[in-house]
Write a structure and sequence with these properties.
This protein is mainly beta.
Length: 139
């Protein structure tokens, strides 16, 4: 299985969904990643790619994503790609790639305020054992 790492921003607040029957929770969200480049005429350009992501780890979805992730949060996702195929009502076959999240880190996260706290956000520090994407890559 191939693993990929994506660093980007959440396009919207994550959806926390419960599976029918089992009631297990999962998180679904979209991560946007922008690549900047130079065109042939030396003009700057950029391309934004969106990735549909699903996290099936119930503890991560409830205790981490639901609590800290929201629209505009900078995230680092590690996971693998799955190809989904379905036939629409019109008989046309559709294809979709999605990222199945194995690990997620929310950078500069803030805890969501509870109803009694109002708009006072509390800064939460990243764990010391994490990795820094700004470090030099050894290869």
């Amino acid at each position: 299985m191939q693993t990929l790492v994506i660093e980007g921003y959440l396009a919207a607040d994550p959806s926390i969904l419960s599976a029918q029957g089992s009631g297990k929770k999962r998180a679904s969200f979209r991560v946007l990643e922008t690549t900047r480049f130079r065109k042939a005429d030396d003009a700057p350009g950029e391309r934004t790619t969106g990735f549909n992501c699903t996290c099936f780890n119930e503890a991560t979805a409830e205790n981490y994503i639901e609590k800290y992730a929201r629209k505009g949060s900078r995230v680092v996702i590690q996971g693998h790609v799955e190809n989904n195929t379905w036939t629409g009502k019109d008989g046309v076959e559709h294809y979709d790639l999605s990222v199945i999240v194995g690990d997620i880190r929310v950078k500069n996260r803030r805890e969501r305020p509870s109803a009694d706290e109002g708009a006072n956000d509390r800064q939460v520090q990243e764990p010391a054992g994490g990795y820094d994407l700004n470090d030099d890559i050894p290869f």
